[in-house]
Structure formats: structure tokens, C-alpha cells
Amino acid sequence: MEYSMYKTFGRKYRCSIRKVLHKYRYKKDFAVTYYNGKGEQKRNIFVKQSFKRKLQGKIQEVGKMPETAYITARTSLIDRLSARCCEICKSESDLQMHHVRKLSELKGKKKWEIMMIARKRKTMAVCHACHRKIHNGALD
């Protein structure tokens, strides 16, 4: 990793590794000098120990189940249709799908538009009555 960094600096400034080491050497360390926002000169030293490979022992825990919570929400089209419930009024009558071409066309002023934008979905499972209200502009 260390020599890879020297090569990267050499390619950036179009010079050899020897010139890079001569330019950025500070008390046997590799350091980059820069000026902060106040105009003060600062030096960032790259410590040699940071380039050493660190081996970590792996602890095996056999039989321990991970403590992970899985959240399964009804978002797919098939799941929403199989729920047999209107997403607006929660009635269980015949469902229809309301579609929009682009989410960017929704203004987010009406209740159903806010629901679609929040879910990031272009479809919504609604009952026949709610679907008529959406197309007539009567549903707020």
C-alpha cells in the first residue's frame, strides 16, 4: 500500500518515486504540507505503522442466530391486490388499480397523491368508488 501511494503521487505530479520521496520527506516520515483556511501551514504525516497489514482473529460462534429484524411491508403489486383492501377507505369491495404515468406529475396536494409519493409507487389498489372519485377530482 505504501509504494502504491508513492506511485499515485508520482503519476499525479509526473515524476519518479525517488523525487516524490525527496519532496515529501519530513524527519524520516512521509508528510504532505498544506495551508488551512486561515493561511497557516499544516503538515499531515502518514505514519508507517498505518501501512502494516493488520490480522484479526475470527471468533466463530456456531449455532448463534443473528438478531435481525425483518420488516415485510406490502409494497409489491401482487401483495397489495391479494390484501383485497382499498388503500384509501379500507373497504373490501372489488379492487381496481389506479395508475399515473410519472410520480413527478403529482403535486402532492391531495390525500391519494401524498400516499403515492410517500410510497414511491405509480400504482394504487383502490375500490371502484374511490377510483371514480379520484378521476372526478372529488377525493381530497
Structure explained in plain terms:
By secondary structure, this protein is an alpha+beta fold. The protein folds into two domains: 2-50, no CATH class; 77-136, no CATH class. It contains five helices and five strands; from the N terminus they run H-H-E-E-E-H-E-H-E-H. The protein has helices at residues 2-13, 17-24, 77-82, 111-119, 128-136, and strands at 25-26, 29-35, 41-46, 95-99, 123-127. The strands form two sheets. Strands 1-2-3 form a three-stranded antiparallel beta sheet. Strands 4-5 form a two-stranded antiparallel sheet. Strand 2 (29-35) and strand 3 (41-46) form a beta hairpin. Helix 1 crosses helix 2 (17-24). It starts with a helix and ends with a helix. The mean pLDDT is 81.
Count of strand segments: 5
What global shape is seen? Answer: elongated
What's the mean pLDDT score? 81
> What is the rounded Rg?
31 Å
Give the end-to-end Cα distance, rounded to a whole number of Å. 61 Å
Class by alpha and beta content? alpha+beta
Protein name: AI2M/AI1M-like HNH endonuclease domain-containing protein
Organism: Dyadobacter jiangsuensis
Domain AI2M/AI1M-like HNH endonuclease: 86-131
